[in-house]
Design goal:
Order of helices and strands of chain A: HHEHEHEHEHEEHEHEHHHHEHHEEH
Protein name (chain A): Glutamyl-tRNA(Gln) amidotransferase subunit A
Catalytic activity (chain A): L-glutamyl-tRNA(Gln) + L-glutamine + ATP + H2O = L-glutaminyl-tRNA(Gln) + L-glutamate + ADP + phosphate + H(+)
EC number (chain A): 6.3.5.7
Strand order of the largest sheet of chain A: 1-3-2-4-6-5-10-11-9-7-8
Helix content of chain B: 25-40%
Strand content of chain B: under 5%
Distance between the termini of chain B: 40 Å
Keywords (chain A): ATP-binding, Ligase, Nucleotide-binding, Protein biosynthesis
Radius of gyration of chain B: 23 Å
Distance between the termini of chain A: 15 Å
Strand order of the largest sheet of chain B: 1-2
Helix content of chain A: 25-40%
Oligomer: heterodimer
Shape of chain B: flat
Radius of gyration of chain A: 21 Å
Number of strands of chain A: 11
Largest sheet of chain A: 11 strands, mixed
Shape of chain A: globular
Number of strands of chain B: 2
Family (chain A): Belongs to the amidase family. GatA subfamily.
Structural class of chain A: alpha/beta
Chain lengths: 485, 95
């Protein structure tokens, strides 16, 4: 078994016992990348020289001894919208083709402090707008389980690199499902934390009231280790929550006796593939066998979530993306006679179609005469959606359903119609609107492609999500399956 | 009924500082019309007495002492500049 197929705790032990050193791990990562990256294409840039130097330093200075730092020496990769000082950061966009951040995102800094080694930056849909990686300004990442299929998005590179064992784990970001949907499509574990739990300082903003950074891993335990390292208040992010961070690892008790699960009927309704539904029902049986009970509930405003989300996220994006004007950073158009042309041409040449479409939608929804009808209306419906969740959580500990209505689709299959593409996120979007945390864990296969089980928790109750996810993982074999590349 | 006209698309593009070709205007008019038409379903809901959610968490202003401190050094700030002169961002003429 390759080193990178082991768990965080196993690798930590091996380092501790000096059976391996950090250089072995970094070598294993770059070896695997050279073997499979041609097929998967998960990365936008590699940080090889620096990663190898850091590995050597850790080996020399610490003589391989990782100390108490559980993540020390472990190879990680970051979605390319997370700023990394001196390492090109594009957010998947041509407009940032030449951008080298002058500071690290808080999460990158915390991982550095923890001793994790950044192997490279991962492909994504441009500015995190997309569900397939086909909107990347650079290339399309492939699904490691079948390279004719999309890896999902927008954190497609983050999920594919972990599924393909190119790195041990990765970070993604999730605005409407961008961690959970690719995690489901690639058969790995992806958590969107509670809004505000993880600092967004240094994350290139898409929709600021929804964006959240989170971990993608192969096991639930590894996910908890990674969240532990990045969660917590940050004075540099005004939306960062000042809450006490629990010990996530100690929440993995293996005991879910008496746990109350809600299953929204809207999440298993028409449009959800029968095989996906079957896998979710099997998962519920497994959890029942472990002492949990479940009941059908209703989240009555679910069907309005998609429209609400596209109005709000596009409006926020149109404001956030106004900073890309070709003046202070990024790519500037060569043909501009005056300042207005410089703005317009730099933006029109630098942004792809989906980004333009959403900037247009957002600008329209915020424009004079339409603000109340679209933007404010959507904010009010958001309240109704949030209330749906609060109601259910009065009587239940978690909400469970599929992560996505179907498994991964073929590359090119949905690129013509934006609304069909948006429908992929119908089960993940309500979670972002409510700001609650949710995980996707593998729960089987349909036609050789992974199916994801979504477990949604109360605000700041990642511990219960991890406990349930871990019990499910321990009781099943799904997480042990590996793609053949 | 059409929700958005070509002229509106052109107007919005100007507000968003995007220049679109005639072809792009056609495509965007059709696509935005479909998306906005889809969003009309929100009008099925009576939200008369519902407060809008701008943010899911309770946010409070965070204040600190107003002390002078180091900022980003000028060289650093200019590192990614497409063009510069005399330590400042350089742009073409305004008009």
């Amino acid at each position: 078994m390759s080193l990178l197929e082991k768990k965080v705790s196993e690798l930590h032990d091996l380092l501790h016992k000096k059976e391996i050193n950090v250089t072995d791990l970094v070598d294993a990562s770059f070896d695997r990348i050279s073997q499979v990256e041609g097929k998967v294409q998960a990365f936008l840039s590699l940080n090889e020289e620096h990663a190898r130097r850091m590995a050597k330093e850790l080996d020399d200075v610490l003589a391989g001894y990782p100390g108490e730092r559980i993540l020390a020496g472990l190879p990680i990769a970051l979605k390319d919208n997370i700023s990394t000082k001196g390492i090109r950061t594009t957010s998947g966009s041509k407009i940032l083709d030449n951008f080298n951040p002058i500071y690290d995102a808080t999460v990158a800094n915390r991982l550095y402090e923890a001793g994790a080694i950044t192997i490279g930056k991962l492909n994504m849909d441009e500015f995190a707008m997309g569900s397939s990686n086909e909107n990347s300004g650079f290339h399309v990442t492939k699904n490691p389980w079948n390279t004719d299929y999309v890896p999902g998005g927008s954190s497609g590179g983050s999920a594919a690199s972990v599924a393909a064992s190119e790195v041990l784990f990765s970070l993604g970001s999730d605005t409407g499902g961008s961690i959970r949907q690719p995690a489901a499509y690639c058969g790995v574990v992806g958590l969107k934390p509670t809004y505000g739990l993880v600092s967004r300082f240094g994350l290139i903003a898409f929709a600021s009231s929804l964006d959240q950074i989170g971990p993608i891993t192969r096991t639930v335990e590894d996910n908890a280790y990674l969240l532990q390292a990045i969660a917590g208040h940050d004075a540099m992010d005004s939306t960062s929550a000042n809450v006490e961070i629990p010990d996530y690892l100690s929440s993995l008790t293996g005991d879910i006796k008496g746990l109350r699960i809600a299953v929204p009927k809207e999440y298993l309704a028409e449009g959800v593939d029968p095989e996906v539904k079957e896998k979710v029902m099997e998962a519920l049986k497994v959890l029942e066998g472990q002492g949990a009970t479940w009941e059908e509930v209703s989240l009555p405003h679910s069907k309005y979530a998609l429209a609400t989300y596209y109005l709000l996220s596009s409006s926020e994006a149109s404001a956030n993306l106004s900073r890309f004007d070709g003046v202070r950073y990024g790519v500037r158009s060569d043909n501009a006679e005056n300042l207005l042309e410089l703005y317009k041409n730099s933006r029109s040449e630098g942004f792809g179609d989906e980004v333009k479409r959403r900037i247009m939608l957002g600008t329209f929804a915020l424009s004079s005469g339409y603000y109340d009808a679209y933007y404010k209306k959507a904010q009010k419906v958001r309240t109704l959606i949030k209330n749906d969740f609060e109601q259910v959580f009065n009587d239940f500990d978690v909400i469970i359903g599929p992560t996505t209505p179907t498994t991964a689709f073929k590359i090119g299959e949905k690129t013509d119609d934006p609304l069909t593409m948006y429908a992929n996120d119908i089960l993940t979007i309500p979670v972002n609107l409510a700001g609650v945390p949710a995980i996707s864990v593998p729960c089987g296969f349909s036609n050789g492609l992974p199916v994801g089980l979504q477990i949604i928790g109360k605000h700041f109750d990642e511990s219960t999500i991890y406990r349930v996810a871990s019990v499910f993982e321990q009781a099943t074999e799904h997480h042990k399956a590996k793609p053949q590349l | 009924m059409s929700q958005i006209s070509k002229d509106e698309v052109k107007h919005v593009a100007n507000l968003a500082r995007l220049s679109l070709s005639e072809e792009e205007v056609d495509v965007f008019t059709e696509q935005l019309d479909a998306i906005i038409g889809f969003a009309e379903q929100l009008n099925e809901l009576d939200t008369e007495n519902i407060e809008p959610t701008t943010h899911v968490l309770e946010l409070r202003n965070v204040l600190r002492e107003d002390q002078a401190r180091e900022s980003v050094p000028r060289e650093e700030a200019l590192k990614n500049a497409p063009d510069e002169r005399d330590g400042q961002f350089k742009v073409p003429k305004t008009f």
